[in-house]
Amino acid sequence: MKSRQPWNSPEAINAARKAALNLPHLRRCVVKIFEGARDACPSFMSEFAEGAAINKATSYQWELAFRPPINDCSEGDLGAFRLFA
Fold it and tell me: Which of 77, 79, 60, 57 is nearest to 68 (CA)?
């Protein structure tokens, strides 16, 4: 790790480092996740670029297009409450 900046929860970082000792494939998995995000980001961001359809949408169109996050319906009673609160 190159940067040694403090984080909001040093305990979480320490716990992850300790758990990583028993997870030999963790580093490779995390790298793959970030590589996938890096590769997908340009095409995703182009949808929001100036002049693109999403960028030109009106407030009314944004309201019509709104969809709740996928997890809300599967979070049990608490998620349902939050969805209709």
Answer: 79
How far is residue 54's CA from residue 13's CA, in Å, rounded to a whole number? 37
The region that residue 6 occupies, defined by phi over 0 for left and psi between -120 and 50 for alpha, beta otherwise, is: beta
pLDDT of 2-56, one tens digit each? 556 666 788 888 888 899 999 999 989 999 999 998 888 887 788 888 888 888 9
Number of domains in the chain: 2
Q: Is residue 17 situated within a structural domain?
A: yes
**Would you say the pTM of this structure is higher than 0.70?**
no
Residue 6 lies in a domain: no
Closest CA to 1 of 27, 26, 21: 27
In a domain, 66, yes or no: yes
